[in-house]
């Protein structure tokens, strides 16, 4: 498209139509019009140069507006990208922490199971120890029982069967009592050993539980701290991005509001047309 078509085409004479043009097309039109403006200036066609300059200014303004719109859209993408990055890193962090927590939980469960097995084994060994100890245990007779057995022998020797029978009954009663007493003492001894062992097991279990709880608390604390560090990192990144984007937009808005032209200083072609007419009139008068 040549310069005259660009100047006269109605499709590019309103802002809405111009905004629909691509940046490449706008750059192309500006270049064509700048070449046309320079040519007109050399040929002293200032009216045409002025029209080209105004169209260039309009195109540059549209270009700056499109740059502003494009930059705003780009900034939205930048913020979205940073938000995606934050979400991905946070999701990955939580996934990794969940895995570590699961492994930690498995480790502690294994420790608890191992301790429980150890306690059951120790209790079983203690019970087996006393079973073996008392399986063939012979109760030592008391002095009183020994004397009764001696009396029984004497009565039998004297053929005193009546007293022998009576003594025999006393021996049976006393033997039964002493056996019951022995069983009670044996039971108390075993129970005391079992209770002492169970207290030891309870202390060990509580100690392990405290150790596990402390590890859980430490894990949760460290996780919370790392989350805060991660959030703070992105908070700073969002702040820096916001400041940068704000400055970018301000600079672009100044360009749009100021109507800065690509080619630099605007030439007042109206004065040149007036000066040209004056010179022409002077020449005509002289003639």
Q: Would you give an account of this structure?
A:
This protein is mainly alpha-helical and 287 residues long. The protein has one domain (3-286). Helices cover 88% and strands 0% of the residues. Helix 3 (23-42) runs antiparallel to helix 4 (46-135) and helix 4 (46-135) packs antiparallel against helix 6. The longest helix is centred in the C-terminal third of the chain and has 98 residues, at 161-258. It is rod-shaped. Residues 260-265 and 277-287 have low confidence and may be disordered.
Please tag this protein with its features.
single chain, mainly alpha, 7 helices
Level of helix content? over 70%
Radius of gyration: 54 Å
What portion of residues belong to β-strands? under 5%
Shape: rod-shaped
Q: Total domains, how many?
A: 1
Structural class of the helices, strands and pairings? mainly alpha
Reading the helices and strands in chain order gives HHHHHHH
**What are the low-pLDDT stretches, counting only 5+ consecutive residues below 50?**
260-265, 277-287
Question: Taking all residues together, what is the mean pLDDT?
Answer: 86
Distance between the termini: 43 Å
Number of strands: 0
**Main sheet overview:** none
């Amino acid at each position: 498209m040549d310069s005259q078509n660009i100047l006269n085409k109605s499709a590019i004479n309103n802002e809405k139509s111009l905004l629909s043009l691509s940046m490449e097309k706008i750059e192309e039109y500006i270049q064509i019009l700048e070449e046309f403006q320079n040519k007109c200036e050399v040929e002293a066609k200032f009216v045409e140069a002025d029209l080209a300059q105004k169209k260039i200014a309009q195109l540059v303004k549209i270009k700056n507006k499109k740059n502003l719109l494009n930059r705003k859209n780009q900034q939205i993408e930048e913020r979205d990208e940073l938000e995606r990055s934050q979400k991905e890193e946070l999701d990955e962090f939580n996934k990794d922490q969940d895995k570590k927590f699961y492994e930690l939980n498995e480790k502690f469960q294994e420790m608890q199971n191992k301790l429980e097995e150890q306690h059951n084994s120790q209790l079983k060994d203690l019970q087996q120890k006393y079973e073996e100890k008392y399986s063939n245990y012979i109760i030592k007779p008391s002095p009183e029982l020994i004397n009764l057995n001696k009396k029984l022998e004497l009565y039998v020797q004297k053929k005193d069967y009546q007293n022998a029978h009576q003594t025999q009954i006393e021996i049976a009663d006393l033997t039964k009592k002493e056996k019951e007493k022995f069983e009670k003492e044996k039971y108390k001894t075993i129970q005391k050993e079992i209770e002492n062992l169970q207290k030891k097991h309870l202390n060990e279990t509580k100690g392990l539980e405290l150790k596990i709880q402390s590890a859980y608390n430490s894990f949760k604390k460290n996780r919370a701290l790392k989350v805060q560090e991660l959030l703070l990192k992105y908070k700073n990144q969002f702040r820096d991005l916001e400041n940068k984007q704000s400055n970018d937009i301000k600079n672009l808005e100044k360009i749009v509001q100021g109507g800065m032209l690509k080619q630099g200083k605007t030439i007042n072609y109206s004065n040149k047309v007036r000066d040209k007419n004056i010179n022409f009139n002077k020449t005509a008068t002289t003639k």
